[in-house]
Amino acid sequence: MSELTPSRLWMKRAAFVLLVLTILFFHLLPLQTATGGLIWPDLILTFALAWSVRRPQYVPAVLLAGMFLLTDLLLQRPPGLWAVLALIACERIKLQSRSLRDASLATELASVTAWIVGIGLAYRIVLAILMVDMPPIGPALIQIAVTVAAYPLVMGITHAFMGVRKATPNDIGGKGARS
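The chain above was modelled as a monomer; its predicted structure follows.
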Protein backbone atom coordinates (compact mmCIF):
# COMPACT_ATOMS: atom_id res chain seq x y z
CA MET A 1 0.00 0.00 0.00
CA SER A 2 1.54 3.31 -1.07
CA GLU A 3 0.55 6.27 1.04
CA LEU A 4 0.41 9.70 -0.56
CA THR A 5 2.23 12.08 1.76
CA PRO A 6 1.73 15.85 1.51
CA SER A 7 5.34 16.35 0.45
CA ARG A 8 4.98 13.82 -2.38
CA LEU A 9 1.72 15.44 -3.46
CA TRP A 10 3.32 18.89 -3.65
CA MET A 11 6.39 17.49 -5.41
CA LYS A 12 4.16 16.01 -8.12
CA ARG A 13 2.27 19.28 -8.46
CA ALA A 14 5.56 21.16 -8.79
CA ALA A 15 6.72 18.59 -11.34
CA PHE A 16 3.58 19.24 -13.39
CA VAL A 17 4.20 23.00 -13.31
CA LEU A 18 7.82 22.43 -14.35
CA LEU A 19 6.66 20.14 -17.15
CA VAL A 20 4.22 22.76 -18.48
CA LEU A 21 6.84 25.51 -18.27
CA THR A 22 9.36 23.33 -20.12
CA ILE A 23 6.88 22.58 -22.90
CA LEU A 24 6.04 26.29 -23.17
CA PHE A 25 9.74 27.17 -23.28
CA PHE A 26 10.37 24.86 -26.21
CA HIS A 27 7.16 25.97 -27.89
CA LEU A 28 8.22 29.62 -27.74
CA LEU A 29 11.73 29.02 -29.09
CA PRO A 30 12.10 30.15 -32.71
CA LEU A 31 13.02 26.69 -33.98
CA GLN A 32 10.74 26.76 -37.01
CA THR A 33 11.37 29.86 -39.10
CA ALA A 34 9.75 28.75 -42.36
CA THR A 35 6.00 28.59 -42.84
CA GLY A 36 4.24 25.32 -43.52
CA GLY A 37 6.32 23.23 -41.12
CA LEU A 38 5.30 20.49 -38.76
CA ILE A 39 2.14 20.72 -36.69
CA TRP A 40 2.89 19.68 -33.13
CA PRO A 41 0.40 18.13 -30.70
CA ASP A 42 -0.92 20.06 -27.75
CA LEU A 43 1.34 18.35 -25.22
CA ILE A 44 0.13 20.44 -22.31
CA LEU A 45 -3.43 19.22 -22.85
CA THR A 46 -2.34 15.61 -23.30
CA PHE A 47 -0.22 15.60 -20.15
CA ALA A 48 -3.02 17.31 -18.19
CA LEU A 49 -5.52 14.69 -19.36
CA ALA A 50 -3.13 11.81 -18.66
CA TRP A 51 -2.41 13.08 -15.14
CA SER A 52 -6.13 13.71 -14.57
CA VAL A 53 -6.93 10.09 -15.44
CA ARG A 54 -4.09 8.61 -13.42
CA ARG A 55 -3.84 10.78 -10.30
CA PRO A 56 -6.49 13.52 -10.16
CA GLN A 57 -5.14 14.85 -6.86
CA TYR A 58 -1.83 15.78 -8.55
CA VAL A 59 -3.54 18.33 -10.81
CA PRO A 60 -6.16 20.33 -8.89
CA ALA A 61 -8.47 22.62 -10.83
CA VAL A 62 -6.72 25.81 -9.67
CA LEU A 63 -3.34 24.54 -10.88
CA LEU A 64 -4.78 23.45 -14.22
CA ALA A 65 -6.62 26.75 -14.69
CA GLY A 66 -3.47 28.73 -13.98
CA MET A 67 -1.33 26.67 -16.34
CA PHE A 68 -3.90 26.74 -19.16
CA LEU A 69 -4.41 30.49 -18.76
CA LEU A 70 -0.65 31.06 -18.82
CA THR A 71 -0.51 28.98 -21.99
CA ASP A 72 -3.27 31.08 -23.58
CA LEU A 73 -1.45 34.29 -22.75
CA LEU A 74 1.98 33.14 -23.92
CA LEU A 75 0.71 31.52 -27.12
CA GLN A 76 -1.42 34.58 -27.94
CA ARG A 77 -4.74 32.76 -28.03
CA PRO A 78 -7.95 34.44 -26.87
CA PRO A 79 -7.35 34.53 -23.10
CA GLY A 80 -9.39 32.04 -21.17
CA LEU A 81 -11.32 30.29 -23.94
CA TRP A 82 -8.99 27.33 -24.45
CA ALA A 83 -8.24 27.35 -20.73
CA VAL A 84 -11.91 26.96 -19.79
CA LEU A 85 -12.54 24.23 -22.36
CA ALA A 86 -9.43 22.28 -21.33
CA LEU A 87 -10.28 22.70 -17.64
CA ILE A 88 -13.81 21.38 -18.20
CA ALA A 89 -12.37 18.36 -20.03
CA CYS A 90 -9.83 17.62 -17.31
CA GLU A 91 -12.41 17.95 -14.55
CA ARG A 92 -14.86 15.66 -16.34
CA ILE A 93 -12.04 13.14 -16.93
CA LYS A 94 -11.26 13.32 -13.20
CA LEU A 95 -14.87 12.38 -12.46
CA GLN A 96 -14.47 9.39 -14.77
CA SER A 97 -11.06 8.41 -13.39
CA ARG A 98 -12.43 5.69 -11.11
CA SER A 99 -14.21 3.94 -13.95
CA LEU A 100 -11.26 4.51 -16.31
CA ARG A 101 -8.90 3.04 -13.71
CA ASP A 102 -10.43 -0.40 -14.24
CA ALA A 103 -11.17 0.08 -17.94
CA SER A 104 -9.06 -1.03 -20.85
CA LEU A 105 -6.57 1.16 -22.64
CA ALA A 106 -8.96 1.44 -25.60
CA THR A 107 -11.73 2.79 -23.35
CA GLU A 108 -9.42 5.40 -21.84
CA LEU A 109 -8.16 6.39 -25.28
CA ALA A 110 -11.72 6.67 -26.62
CA SER A 111 -12.79 8.87 -23.72
CA VAL A 112 -9.78 11.16 -24.03
CA THR A 113 -10.15 11.29 -27.81
CA ALA A 114 -13.76 12.41 -27.46
CA TRP A 115 -12.70 15.22 -25.14
CA ILE A 116 -9.81 16.37 -27.37
CA VAL A 117 -12.07 16.45 -30.44
CA GLY A 118 -14.81 18.16 -28.43
CA ILE A 119 -12.45 20.84 -27.17
CA GLY A 120 -11.10 21.49 -30.65
CA LEU A 121 -14.55 21.79 -32.20
CA ALA A 122 -16.01 23.85 -29.35
CA TYR A 123 -13.07 26.25 -29.57
CA ARG A 124 -13.69 26.82 -33.28
CA ILE A 125 -17.44 27.16 -32.80
CA VAL A 126 -17.08 29.79 -30.07
CA LEU A 127 -14.54 31.72 -32.15
CA ALA A 128 -16.91 31.60 -35.13
CA ILE A 129 -19.87 32.79 -33.04
CA LEU A 130 -17.79 35.68 -31.70
CA MET A 131 -16.51 36.40 -35.24
CA VAL A 132 -12.88 36.20 -34.23
CA ASP A 133 -10.31 35.61 -36.97
CA MET A 134 -9.47 31.91 -37.01
CA PRO A 135 -6.66 29.96 -38.58
CA PRO A 136 -7.67 27.64 -41.43
CA ILE A 137 -9.59 24.51 -40.48
CA GLY A 138 -7.09 22.12 -42.08
CA PRO A 139 -4.18 22.70 -39.69
CA ALA A 140 -6.60 22.78 -36.74
CA LEU A 141 -7.96 19.34 -37.65
CA ILE A 142 -4.44 18.03 -38.17
CA GLN A 143 -3.44 19.30 -34.73
CA ILE A 144 -6.44 17.54 -33.18
CA ALA A 145 -5.46 14.30 -34.94
CA VAL A 146 -1.80 14.65 -33.94
CA THR A 147 -2.78 15.38 -30.33
CA VAL A 148 -4.95 12.25 -30.23
CA ALA A 149 -2.12 10.23 -31.78
CA ALA A 150 0.36 11.58 -29.22
CA TYR A 151 -1.78 10.60 -26.22
CA PRO A 152 -0.59 6.95 -26.03
CA LEU A 153 3.04 8.14 -26.09
CA VAL A 154 2.29 10.68 -23.35
CA MET A 155 0.59 7.92 -21.33
CA GLY A 156 3.72 5.80 -21.62
CA ILE A 157 6.03 8.65 -20.63
CA THR A 158 3.78 9.56 -17.71
CA HIS A 159 3.72 5.97 -16.49
CA ALA A 160 7.32 4.92 -17.13
CA PHE A 161 9.39 8.04 -16.53
CA MET A 162 7.31 10.28 -14.29
CA GLY A 163 5.91 7.66 -11.97
CA VAL A 164 2.33 8.86 -12.37
CA ARG A 165 0.46 5.57 -12.48
CA LYS A 166 -3.19 4.73 -12.20
CA ALA A 167 -4.29 4.43 -8.60
CA THR A 168 -5.00 0.98 -7.29
CA PRO A 169 -7.98 0.31 -5.03
CA ASN A 170 -5.57 -0.03 -2.09
CA ASP A 171 -3.96 3.39 -2.55
CA ILE A 172 -4.95 5.97 0.02
CA GLY A 173 -5.39 9.62 -0.88
CA GLY A 174 -3.84 12.59 0.90
CA LYS A 175 -6.77 13.06 3.31
CA GLY A 176 -7.28 9.42 4.13
CA ALA A 177 -9.90 8.81 1.46
CA ARG A 178 -9.51 6.14 -1.14
CA SER A 179 -8.32 7.54 -4.46
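The chain has one domain: 6-29+38-160.
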